Amino acid sequence: MLEKDVWFSLLKISESTKAALLNKLGGTEEVWKYSRDSGWLLSGDRSELKVKAKISVSPGEKEIEAVSSALLKNGIRLVCCNDPLFPAKLKQQAECPAVLFYKGSPSELGFGKTAAIVGSRNCTSYGRSAAAAIARDLCRSGIGVVSGLARGIDGAAHRSALANGGYTCGVLGCGLDIVYPRENQSLYSEMFAKGCVLTEFLPGTRPAPYNFPKRNRLISGLSDVVIVVEAGEKSGALITAALALEQNKSVFSVPGSIFSNMSSGANRLIRDGAQIYTDLDDLRTCLSLDSAAPVDCAGAFASELHSRIFDVLSEKPMHIDEIINITHIDIKQLFELLFELQLDNRILCLTGNYYIRAAND
To answer: For the segment 12-62, what is each residue's pLDDT rounded down to a tens digit?
Structure first.
């Protein structure tokens, strides 16, 4: 069956035509038989004759074998749009891909609520902290997190979802055998085990710029709402927001500083009509939430170092340099510890690398 699925994925016809063939014939095996039987026509009109002429010119055996080998070597699976495992939300969208490649478990995309968290790759500490906090609250409310597995906002959202035991799905603009960016290798591995990573691109497809708008339409399509955390005027997150509106999805934007270029696009979305995201209560209506989930921040600290950092902080902002001077913790390790304290809602990061205790502590 894998050989026929790969053959089908390589056909040079539109995604809508592929979907129509699957719906009419039942599966890739039947489409393959149809392509081989010159006397078998579904309607006999000119458009069908053109389609049949195209699919009768099959991909070569070497090409099919190369893709099949790449799938098996990398543990990548393939699902067609007529399969129950295929995400139902995507089937409702125009230009739905007929075939998806995935690793992990996509089954949770078929039911329950999901929210996309998107934003700038070159985000600020404010944006990273906001993305992590939003993902945490979503997951504690049973809402899955969808994003693009890029650096910056995407990575912060995925990591926070995993850290809080939630479900998260990453959508790629390249083949699943390519880790992009390379720095996300460990994140990829963890998501394969605890979430899902998927793409419509064949193995070996490089992350070319023109792939990402296609990727973005899947991010919005897989989600019930889209939340833009931090985005400049030319951020790809704005493309995702525009696609979400075309798909009749709700768009939220996290307000940012008027002095930050990283927030100019996100603020403009609010000016143009996007809903403001300040906390989970803002999603209550569009996601039909009974109530905002309480965030439990009580309990012991994860380590003595976490406790030491927390003890030096107060309601008065303290700069990272001052924290280093007091705690004598290496700066790289300190940033990791501060980030973990933010995920636990113990502290907040302010613009300029200043930190304070969270109000509920």
So the answer is: 999 999 999 999 999 999 999 998 887 788 877 778 888 888 888 878 899
The verdict on residue 259 lying in a domain is yes
Q: What is the CATH number of the domain that holds 310?
A: 1.10.10.10
Q: How many domains does the chain have?
A: 3
In the structure encoding, which two tokens stand for residue 242, read together?
Answer: 């525009």
Is the residue at 174 inside a domain?
yes
Q: Of 230, 251, 283, which closes a domain?
A: 283
Is residue 195 in some structural domain? yes
What CATH number is attached to the domain comprising 214?
3.40.50.450
Cβ–Cβ under 8 Å, residues 353 and 342: no
Q: What is the largest CA-CA distance in the chain?
A: 82
Q: Are 264 and 123 found together in one domain? A: yes
Residue 218 lies in a domain: yes
Segments forming the whole domain that contains residue 310: 304-357
- What would the two tokens of residue 213 be? 């708008």
Pair 195, 333 in one domain:
no
Whole-model pTM?
0.81
Whether the CB-CB separation of 292 and 141 falls below 8 Å is answered with yes
Are 112 and 165 in the same domain?
Answer: yes
| Tens-place pLDDT, residues 261-309 | 999 999 999 999 999 999 899 998 888 776 544 444 445 677 788 888 9
Inter-residue long-range contacts of 311-316, CB under 8 Å, 24+ positions, other chains counted: 313/347, 313/355, 313/356, 313/357, 314/356, 314/357, 315/356, 315/357, 316/356
Describe the crossing of helices 28-36 and 15-25 by its angle, rounded to 10 degrees: 90
